Amino acid sequence: MDKLNILNSEVIDLLVEQDLLNQLIAKLIINDITDNVQLSDEEINNFKTNLFREEKIEDEKQFEKWLINKSLSEKDLINKVSKTYKISKYCLDKFSSRIHAHFLSRKTQLDQVIYSLLRVSDQYIAKELYLRILSNEESFSSLAEKFSEGNEKEVQGIVGPVQIELAHPQLAKVLKSSIAGKLNQPFQIGGSWLIVRVESFKEALLNPAMEMQMAKELFHEWLNEEVNKVSKKLKEKNSTDSYIKEVKI
Asked: Is 75 helix (H, G, I), strand (E, B) or coil?
C-alpha cells in the first residue's frame, strides 16, 4: 500500500470526513490483486475473441486501429476487461480450502423455498379465506388473485424460488418451520395478515456457481478486515504526525 504514503494529513482528514478513505483503500487492494494475477495465453485470447465479436472487429489490423481510437494499449485493455475475471480467479485460489466449511455454515440460509402467499389488512377476512382454502372450497391461487393486497396478487400468490433469509424475519421463521403442502394459520406482520403455504423446498447445492458465491463472500469478509487494518494504521499514524507537528509549533 505504498501509494497511500503520498497522502498528507489534510487529505486523510478529508477522506475520513467524506467516508471515502475505506473505499480508496479497498480499490488499491483490489488493484494490487488484479495486477498480480497472471493470465494464460489462452485466457487472453478468449478475452480478445469475445471483444472481437462484441465490437465486430474482424482482424488484428482492425483491432490495432480500434485501440488507437480508444487511446488504449492492448495490455491496458486486457487488464481493464479482465478485472472481474481476475478477482474471481483470485477468490477461488485463495479461499478454495474454506469454501466447503463456509457453505455448510450458510446452508440453511441458502436453501430456497417456493410458497403461496395471501395477505389482507383485515383479520376477519384473513380467517375466512383461510377456512375457505382449508376446506377446499376455493383454491389458494384463485383467492390470492381475487383478494391479496400485495404484488403476489399478479402471480396467483406464488412466490419463489427465493432464499428464505431474504424474507421478513417473522415470515422466514414460519417458512422454516412449515411442512410442504400444509396451510399455516393467518399471522400478522405490521398492518397485514398473511396466509402462507410452503409448496416446496429447494436445497442449496455446492455446485460450481455456489462455490464461486462462497469464495466471493469469503473474499469480501477478508477484504473488509484488510481495509479496516490499513485504515486504522493510517489514522493512528496521521494522529501521531499531527501531534508531532503541534508540539514542534
From this structure: helix
Judge whether 116 and 239 are in contact, CB under 8 Å.
Answer: no
Grid cell listed for 178: 412449515
Averaged pLDDT, groups of 10, the chain, 249 residues long: 78 88 94 92 92 92 92 90 94 96 92 95 96 95 95 94 90 93 96 96 93 97 95 81 51
Task: Give which of 198, 175, 203, 179 is closest to 116, Cα–Cα.
Answer: 198
pLDDT value at residue 240: 66
Give pLDDT, residue 187.
97
Could you read off the pLDDT of 221-241 as tens digits, one per residue? 999 999 999 999 888 877 766
CA nearest neighbour of 83 among 43, 139, 127: 43
Could you tell me if 188 and 194 are in contact, meaning their C-beta atoms sit under 8 angstroms apart?
yes
- Full-model pTM: 0.74
Name the residue among 181, 194, 185 with its Cα closest to residue 150: 194
Closest CA to 161 of 206, 116, 211: 116
Please give the single-letter amino acid code of residue 2.
Answer: D
Sequence-distant contacts of 241-244: CB under 8 A, at least 24 apart? 241/9, 242/9
Sign of the CA dihedral with 29 first, then 30, 32, and 38 last: positive
pLDDT at 155: 95
Residue 73 carries which DSSP code?
-
Three-state helix/strand/coil letters over 152-178: HHHHCCEEEEEEHHHCCHHHHHHHHHC
Return the closest-CA partner of residue 109 out of 203, 183, 43: 203
Nearest partner of 39 among 89, 80, 94, judged by Cα: 89
